[in-house]
Design goal:
The protein has 443 residues and is an alpha+beta fold. 47% of the residues lie in helices and 16% in strands. Strands 9-8-7-10-11 form a 5-stranded mixed sheet, sandwiched between helices. Strand 7 and strand 8 form a beta hairpin. Helix 6 crosses helix 7, helix 8 runs antiparallel to helix 9 and helix 9 packs antiparallel against helix 10. The radius of gyration is 32 Å and the shape is elongated. Bound molecules: zinc ion (ZN). Zinc ion (ZN) binds next to loops. The site of zinc ion has 6 residues, from loops.
Length: 443
């Protein structure tokens, strides 16, 4: 059999246009599993033909409608007709893109002000927004080369390369940073969870690693991811402020930051808020250090030749966690000091015992300085927890993987410039939140 595919357009003025966009031949004796229906190549070529027909008719009709002068309804003359290349998901299309002369009925100043393109500014980047979003989304999910390959595999669009995808993603990322934030839920207090991901840096930047700041902004019932590279964003604090406002922050309400000890992270939020924020030291990072002490003490007690008072070590190690969890940092600090002193007093005849005592002392000192450096950021974690408030930045740690490591982690063997990494981080956060809106259903 022969299959012919026609497109019929009926314009608003009643005129119709019909054209053949493809023909398929399927011989009756050729039917087998490899030869049923449409092939990917057939489908791509049909889609390309269909897109060409629709775009040409749509642009043609729109220009005709705009030729009519709004004041006197006369047809305006075409000044020139240079045509333009437009990239779409379904092919690269050369469309008519005429410039129209001004109507003579207009005042002299306007009439002489030169021709005007009725479709000017419609397509930034000479591509449809849908194609740009798809390039950005796939570029944020896969390597640029792989993204280009995937798009080309399934769609009849123009040839894709890693640089096309990278550049499009870059421009989409820049627009994401500038876009109107659009406040959703005003006057709610926010919690910002912050963490950092380390990725390989390109050699010309004179350092091995780049820090990507990743995290989440949460209000009562909404959350929004973000990612940025401080060196690359021209104002990282402004960037974060944008995210806060988008999440319903009104410029006044309380902002709480939960992060580990890295001081640059809460400082970034302070600059974004332009005022004080409540910084809470992440419970998980404290808990890990307590765990180290517990293990070291257990190791000491089990060491051969331990002759000290068991209780002297066992009990403080057990109560340390409880005091910290309930915000009794001073008591915890005293316990740490006492543990260190008791280690010093221990009769350590064997080498094993000496090593074990040394380990306990070092772990205690480690936690002691950690707490001392962040004394202001210690709170009653138990109280917060009982009131349903977050005590840990573990939610930001999910973002470290989602935004940083999966696409840019060290295992991917790619090296990044600050700007490139920043753009991918911004786009990935938007993709994971579903803010890019590749398909209309998702939006
Ligand atoms: Zn006119």
């Amino acid at each position: 059999m022969d299959v012919s595919i026609f497109v019929e357009t009926t314009f608003d003025d009643g005129e119709t246009k019909r054209r053949n966009i493809g023909r398929l031949r399927r011989a009756p004796d050729e039917l087998d599993s490899e030869n049923l229906g449409l092939f990917l190549d057939d489908a791509k070529s049909l889609l390309r033909g269909l897109q060409e027909a629709i775009v040409q008719d749509q642009v043609g009709e729109a220009i005709e409608a705009r030729r009519k002068c709004v004041s006197c309804a006369k047809q305006r003359a075409i000044h020139d007709d240079r045509g333009r290349i437009l990239d779409t998901l379904f092919g690269r299309i050369q469309v008519k893109w005429p410039r129209l002369r001004r109507c003579m009925c207009q005042p002299v100043g306007i009439a002489k002000s030169g021709p005007q393109s009725p479709l000017a500014g419609l397509f930034s980047d000479r591509a449809t927004p849908e194609l740009r979003r798809l390039q950005a989304e796939l570029g944020a999910r896969h390597s640029f080369r792989e993204a280009a390959r995937l798009i080309e595999l399934f769609l009849p669009c123009s040839g894709q390369s890693n640089t096309t995808v990278r550049n499009r993603l870059g421009r989409v990322a820049d627009e994401l940073g500038q876009g109107d934030a659009g406040t959703i839920a005003p006057r709610s207090s926010l919690t910002v969870f912050l963490d950092g991901a380390h990725i390989r840096c390109r050699p010309e930047y004179q350092k091995r690693h780049l820090d990507v700041v990743v995290g989440k902004v949460e209000s009562a019932n909404l959350s929004r991811r973000f990612g940025l590279v401080q060196q690359a964003a021209n104002s990282p604090a402004k960037h974060l402020r944008h995210d806060l406002i988008a999440q319903g922050w009104d410029g006044q309400s309380k902002v709480t930051v939960i992060s580990d000890g890295e001081p640059s992270l809460p400082n970034l939020v302070r600059r974004a808020v332009r005022g004080p924020v409540t910084h809470i030291l992440d419970w998980w990072h404290i808990s890990m250090r307590v765990k180290h002490i517990e293990n070291a003490v257990r190791g000491l007690l089990q060491s051969r030749g331990f002759s000290g008072l068991l209780l002297l070590f066992e009990r403080p190690a057990d109560s340390l966690r409880w005091y910290l969890w309930h915000g009794k940092a001073m008591t915890a600090a005293t316990i740490l000091k006492v543990l260190q002193i008791d280690c010093d007093r221990l009769h350590t005849e064997t080498r094993e015992l000496r090593e074990a005592a040394k380990r306990v002392r070092a772990r205690c000192q480690d936690l002691y300085s950690y707490l001392a450096n962040h004394f202001d950021a210690l709170v009653d974690y138990g109280h917060r927890h009982r009131n349903g408030l977050a005590v840990s930045s573990s939610r930001a740690e999910g973002c470290v993987d989602d935004i940083g490591n999966t696409r840019m982690g060290k295992r991917r063997r790619m090296r990044w410039s600050p700007r490139g990494a920043h753009r991918v981080a911004v786009t990935r956060a938007a993709v994971l939140d579903g803010r890019l809106g590749v398909s209309k259903q998702a939006a």
